[in-house]
Write a structure and sequence with these properties.
The chain is built from 4 helices and 8 strands, in the order βαβαβαβββββα. The strands form 3 sheets. Strands 1-4-8 form a 3-stranded antiparallel β-sheet. The chain has a 3-stranded antiparallel β-sheet with strand order 3-6-5. A two-stranded antiparallel ribbon has the order 2-7. Helix content is 26%, strand content 34%. This is DUF952 domain-containing protein. InterPro entries: DUF952. It holds the Pfam family DUF952.
């Protein structure tokens, strides 16, 4: 299994479960859902989500994703997985609580370390 991860608000994920698919906010504005590989999670969280609570980390089996996945370079040249289209929720095999530490920054949850 090749796992990719996506950070989202718990409320958005709960709504996705009601309709059967997930459309990240960037899908409409940028045409894709941002995802990360395990070694990119903390960097992404601390850059885009500092001090935000109520987040979950979706562990996604990329082999089960029905939409196209492209690995594309970010501004720093590092490749990030992007899902082009809605994410079928059955591709998500684990939902991990993802809260910042007291200092507002994130650390890699132990569950992710176990998935590597």
């Amino acid at each position: 299994m090749n796992t990719i991860f996506h950070i989202t608000q718990r409320q958005q994920w709960e709504q996705a479960n009601l309709i059967g698919s997930y459309r990240g906010d960037t899908l409409d504005s940028e045409g894709f859902i941002h995802c990360s590989q395990a070694n990119q999670i903390v960097k992404v969280a601390n850059r885009f989500f500092p001090n935000q609570s109520g987040l979950v980390l979706l562990a996604i089996d990329s082999n089960q994703v029905q939409a196209e996945i492209r690995y594309e370079a970010a501004e720093i040249g590092e490749l990030f997985p992007h899902i082009y289209g809605a994410l079928n929720i059955d591709a998500v095999y684990q939902v991990i609580n993802f809260e910042p530490q007291e200092n507002g920054f994130f650390e890699l949850p132990p569950e992710v370390t176990d998935l590597k």
